[in-house]
Design a protein that fits this description.
single chain, 139 residues, Metallo-beta-lactamase, Chain A, 8 strands, globular
Length: 139
């Protein structure tokens, strides 16, 4: 397999009341894949711009749902992360109608996203003709 390389990012935690909490993000390279997980990071340009993530060629970004629902967050994703695929995480427990609305809103802005809204949810990806494609998970 050849190993993995992990870069740890010290990021501001989302929500003013939580700024004192440590929040770490990770850029993980495994084989030809580059993954990004930002934890609960604040979705501001100031928080991410100096890491130059747009140069990392992120294949899959695990992003809190609030990155994908606010104007500033969407700008950060498009300008500073530029992932091929997004997995929206930290979706709060909500009614079915609220989950459907959040999913619709995210998909409207980021059609290349997967919404993780259930515990133990899985998604498998494969490269197909130079594109990253989600496929049904096989156990």
């Amino acid at each position: 397999m050849g190993g993995a390389e992990i870069t740890v990012l010290r990021l501001w935690h989302g929500g003013e009341e939580f700024y004192a909490l440590e929040n770490l993000g990770y850029v993980i390279r495994v084989g030809s894949w580059t993954l990004l997980h930002v934890g609960d990071a604040d979705s501001t340009e100031e928080n991410l711009r100096n890491f130059h993530l747009e140069r990392e060629r992120i294949d899959i970004a695990f992003l809190p749902f609030w990155y994908l629902l606010t104007s500033e967050g969407r700008t950060v994703v498009r300008a500073h992360i530029r992932p091929k695929h997004i997995i929206a995480v930290h979706i709060p427990n909500a009614s079915v109608s609220e989950l459907q609305k959040v999913s619709r809103d995210i998909k409207a802005s980021f059609p290349n996203s997967t919404i993780f809204s259930a515990l133990m949810q899985k998604q498998q990806f494969v490269w197909h003709l130079f594109n990253l494609v989600p496929v049904p998970f096989t156990a």
